[in-house]
TrEMBL record:
Annotated protein name in UniProt: Glycosyltransferase family 4 protein
Transcription regulation in keyword set: no
Pfam families for this protein: Glyco_trans_1_4, Glyco_transf_4
Classification via SUPFAM superfamilies: UDP-Glycosyltransferase/glycogen phosphorylase
GO MF, one annotated term: glycosyltransferase activity
Keywords noted in UniProt: Glycosyltransferase, Transferase
């Protein structure tokens, strides 16, 4: 287990929206000591945690992170180093397996020890594995609020199969250890109701939020790719269907090119499929990188996913008024709002081909106006400031729901934590 010391919180905070103090005493009287627990320091889940950590630190709450030590490589190391000024409770990295494993017992004990060492009053688990650790870690002493944000995960994994039923059974048991659910989309909240039921603590929907800077206009790169995909290279993201659609477009006489940015377990399979379809010269693969410069290098973002929760990549592209073709899955309709009728059936290469062709052929001014309107709608509904406030409000509601004696036990624990932690 590695514990990385945090550095003074001096930089980057001035660029962040600060969560306004609440008039509710439960939210303002004593800072929470928040430990975010999750597996992979990469992708949208990590972006969500990093944004929350900065917002919560800016609002005066000591924050720390516990995550996997084997995921993310140098990119994760740098991202965690950038986040360190906001982490008064530090960064703890320990081995975490993606799937259930005996090593989870050691990880649970390590999470518990870290929570006790920093006097955590909030254990906030993200994703299936983080949710297990945050809710089952045997923390002794003061009562700790257990919060959970699913981020899709097991709720989306092969519905109808025996394995999915097993996962939902486990979620039902863990719900009894959950003080507050903070669902990132109405879609996942609905899946929880359907598959798990009403067991457990409070439920809130807290949509992912993005910053004002992400709505700045993009300066399109010279000679952009026609199509762009950004995200994990997994078949579950619908990428075989995107390659099929690209082949169909080119067979119809459209010399379109595709840029695929990301990494994942199916990268080699996808490269082989592109070659088999005769697309080797039409598809460029690049590693994961900052999204805004990448958005400028493509005319149309394509999100062909088979399952999602509330993907940041769609929020980020929509905010930048990037033309988008996306599938009608998960929380994506919540992002599109009144424009959700434009979404495409998943697992349908012909429907995807037709949708891409429509955007390619659309009058540029009409296309620009359509996605500028989507950007304005997203700006109104998916605020990072609101996300931060709503999460803190969820914690406060869970604290208020505790028996008074349990709340009384929190105060001496908080007061006894040395600032040297």
């Amino acid at each position: 287990m590695r514990v990385l010391a945090s550095r003074p919180a001096e930089r980057r905070l001035e660029t962040l929206p600060v969560v306004a103090p609440s008039s509710n005493p439960a939210e303002t009287s004593t800072p929470n000591r928040i430990l975010h627990v999750f597996r992979a320091p990469v992708g949208g889940l990590f972006r969500h945690v990093a944004d929350l950590a900065r917002l919560q630190a800016a609002a005066g709450h000591p924050v720390g992170i516990v995550c996997d030590s084997n995921t993310g490589g140098e990119r994760a190391e740098q991202a965690l180093a950038d986040l360190a000024p906001s982490l008064r409770l530090g960064v703890t990295r320990l081995p975490m397996r993606r799937n259930p494993h005996l090593s989870d017992l050691a990880a649970l004990r390590a999470v518990a020890r870290r929570a006790e060492a920093v006097g955590a009053t909030i254990l906030h688990g993200h994703g299936a594995k983080g949710g297990v650790y945050a809710r089952l870690a045997p923390v002794y002493g003061a009562r700790v609020i257990r919060a959970y944000t699913p981020h899709g995960g097991s709720y989306n994994y092969r519905p109808g199969t025996m394995l999915h039923r097993l996962y939902m059974g486990i979620e039902g048991l863990l719900a009894r250890r959950t003080d507050v659910f903070l669902f990132e989309s109405e879609y996942v909240a609905g899946r929880h109701r359907s598959y798990v039921g009403s067991t457990g603590g409070l439920r809130r929907i807290v949509h992912n939020g993005i910053s004002e800077a992400e709505f700045e206009p993009l300066a399109r790169a010279a000679d952009p790719f026609d199509l762009l995909y950004v995200g994990e290279l997994r078949e579950a993201k619908g990428l075989p269907f995107l390659l099929d659609a690209l082949a169909r477009l080119r067979a119809a006489g459209r010399p379109v090119r595709l840029l695929m940015v990301g990494s994942g377990p199916d990268a080699e399979i996808l490269k082989a499929k592109a070659a088999a379809l005769g697309l080797s010269e039409a598809v460029a693969f690049e590693p994961a990188q900052a999204i805004r410069p990448v958005l400028a290098r493509g005319r149309i973002m394509v999100v062909p996913s088979l399952a999602e929760s509330l993907p940041y990549v769609v929020l980020e592209a929509a905010a930048a008024a990037q033309p988008l073709v996306a599938t009608n899955v998960g929380g994506i309709p919540e992002i599109f709002g009144t424009a959700a009728s434009e979404l495409v059936r998943p697992s349908d290469p012909q429907a995807l081909t037709s949708a891409i062709a429509r955007v390619l052929d659309e009058d540029p001014e009409i296309c620009r106006a359509r996605f500028t309107a989507l950007s304005a709608s997203v700006k109104q509904r998916f605020s990072m400031h609101r996300m931060g406030s709503d999460v803190l409000s969820g914690y406060a509601a869970a604290l208020r729901a505790l028996p008074q004696v349990a709340q009384a036990r929190l105060e001496p624990a908080r007061a006894g934590i040395a600032e040297s932690v």
